Amino acid sequence: MSKTAPKTYITSGHSGCAGCCDAFAAKFTLMGAGPNTIVINPTGCLEVMSTPFPYSSWQVPWIHSLFENAGAVASGVEAALKALGKKDDVKVVSIGGDGSTMDIGLGALSGAFERGHDFTYVCMDNEAYMNTGVQRSSGTPFDASTTTTPAGKVSFGNPRPKKNMPAIMAAHGSPYVATTSIGFPRDMIRKVKKATEIVGPTYIHAQAPCPTGWGFDTSKTLEIAKLAVETCLWPMYEMENGEITQVRKVKNPRPVEEYLRAQKRFKHLFTMEGGEEEIKKIQAIADWNIKHFELQ
Amino acid sequence: MIDPAYRKKMVVVEGSYAVAHSAKVCRPNVISAYPITPQTHIVEHLSQFMADGEIPNCEYVNVEAEFSAISALIGASAVGARTYSATTSQGLLLMHEALFNTSGMRLPVVMTVANRAVSAPINIWNDHQDAIAQRDTGWMQLYVEDVQEACDTLPQLYKIAEDNEIMVPGMVCMDGFILSHVYEPVVLLEQDLTDNFLPPFQPEDILDPEDPKTFGAFASPDTYEEFRYLHEQAMQKALPKIEATAKEFEEVYGRYHGGLIDGYMLDDAEIVVMAMGSILGTVKDVVDKYRAKGEKIGVLKVRSFRPFPKEQICKAVKNAHAVVVLDKNISIGTNEGALFTETKSCLYNSKVRVPVIGYTIGHGGRDIPVESIAKVIEETKKVAKSGITIESQFMDLKEELL
Fold first, then answer.
1. Which terminus of chain A is less hemmed in, N or C, by CB atoms within 10 Å?
2. pTM over 0.95
3. CATH number, position A214
4. A74 contacts in B (CB within 8 Å)?
């Protein structure tokens, strides 16, 4: 990569919260994809904050249709570019949150990948439905407190682990699936660039911490993102044709407690009886990642 | 008497084949559809055309559901492609949310709907409930009477939808099975005539990196209402355009099926039977018998249900003694079919004072025999005399099943 950062194609002046992860994710995605890109954005924070009519932060052609159809809209965009003889020059990139990607839009996304459309899907995973007020998604991690899985007298929060979305997308026969994090902009830009240059449906799963939903200071977004990687709760790897081909090593993994303690959504684990046991379970997830992805 | 030269052009083909052929000669760039009875044959024929390389510059997207079929066309249309789909019943209902989105973004997608009843109970046969349930989605809806009209209306609807003053999507509603699966003589649309009639799609705004634009933005209470107003205005502009396009079509192809509405024995009619779709053929047969006896019965075909031709309907029935509306649908909770309700609604705001009665008929493919139409006409004659209108009712209910 050159020392000069690539230009991005999303302007400031949007109405995102201070420290917004989506703004970072969109920015890094476009830095990787470049100006010859059509962006498809399902409903979510990013769409709402970047296009309050008559304003728009997008300096590339951009379309938002619905919450659950970005995969299908991207299919149509790609098919039309092909039919009109424009596909060679233009990249098609969809940027969606975990709700639209992993839950309501999974059917349309699966269809698009199975059909082999040439586009890149970037999931900015902030681990809950932030646009509607921090409700659980299938990307919400184990024991996180959300407004629909709140911690309470008999609950430690979300009772299930995250859905393994990268594995699902790789299982579609995607030529390229990668995880990344907005805490590592160079990594994200490189992976998006690589994904958009590969022909076929490619998928990037980006960790995107949300200060509002997770409960941390707005200046700490990138710091928290880095901490997730350093505690091995967010392994960063690339998969080509279903095989893991590259892993970002974590030499000295930090205890998950550091990551959990920094966020209000896990606060109950430090105050409730039995919280220590729960933290051990989360440490076990990180330990499994270390072993499975050979992070060390 | 059919001109022998014209007769020579006629072929007997399945309705679905004829419609698929029509879609083909309209030169779509992206077709996206999911098979569902009784639309299936349309998309199968199109798939075969694709497999035989007969549709140039076109991509066929074999989606995993109707919701994605319409969503793919949203993306494709926004890039500047002419787009086509066909669906029916549950498939059309599955598209519901995206139908609003298509029209709200003012994307002129065109679709054939092979009308079918909706679940539950599941039923695959014809009525109009599926399309009527989409009446507020902001799509144009043109209902056709026979296969020839189903074919001929496609290029007309593209021309109307893609007019830069309008830019509203539209559906050609044809009765499932009755028209989609019937073999009848038709003239398949000629490519050269269609190229002459239907210019290439040239939208003013598209998704293009050379000139980036934002589609489907977020609108606050400050701006949202104006989008709705402009959408309604576009529909109003479509009213004269539908009329004009039907006439232009006639000039090029020599066939006319009506514009917004069409009349049969209507000018001096004392009793008017109003309906949409293939039932009109049966109604016309019954009316012929009445006319042979010297009774002044006429038929008002409503071709455009959206936009709704209020003015034309008021004018068409102003001299009638009574009007009866036959609806292959019901808005449950009103005991009325939609055409009946809307007809009464537009008459109320006019100076026309005609008694109007309604029947909801032919649900789930139930046959509508000529005897029943005659019975309806007899009831309407009574209303014409008494001036007393009656509650809308189901036709030919089987009391023993209740």
1. N
2. yes
3. 3.40.50.970
4. 75
